[in-house]
Design brief:
With about 150 residues, the protein is of the alpha+beta class. The protein contains 5 helices and 6 strands. The two termini are about 30 Å apart.
């Protein structure tokens, strides 16, 4: 959990605070402790550095929620994203995942752009953020947009 916490403090803190929500190491550690035990976690390392991660949990009937998806700023290139997407694809087959949902703060422009690039559809919006959904049957090849570079 500490490696995810450290990466999130590096990448999520500024836009979470800009959205008007609290984001301290203590509050985020508590949030992670609540969701990680029910989640499937995928991590990509470069040496000892956590280059990227995602964690998802089931909501029922093939629907899973993407609770977190993070890429270290030094590793924001196609290879790491492609590795994460390949692992999600494998997990989807193993777990019978047919749909993914995700929430994104409006202040997180990188995540919004990634969701759009991956084919997620906007399903809800409020003052702070967006809810996205992706039906995996409609998404033939998640790796085609991210070559191994």
């Amino acid at each position: 959990m500490e490696d995810i916490l450290a990466l999130d403090m590096l990448t999520l803190r500024a836009h979470t605070l800009a959205a008007g929500d609290e984001f301290t190491p203590e509050s985020h550690r508590t949030a992670l402790a609540a969701v990680l035990p029910k989640s499937k976690i995928v991590k990509i390392h470069s040496g000892v550095v956590l280059a990227g991660y995602t964690y998802l949990w089931p909501k029922g009937g093939g629907l899973w929620f993407v609770g977190g998806f993070g890429i270290h700023p030094d590793f924001r290139f196609g290879r790491v994203i492609a590795q994460l997407l390949a692992e999600i694809k494998t997990l989807a087959k193993q777990e019978g995942i047919t749909e993914l949902q995700s929430h994104v703060y409006k202040t997180n422009q990188r995540s919004i752009a990634l969701h759009q690039r991956l084919g997620f559809q906007l399903i809800q919006e409020n003052q702070k953020g967006f809810a996205f959904s992706l039906t995996l049957a409609d998404y033939a090849n998640p790796l085609q947009s991210f070559p191994n570079t």
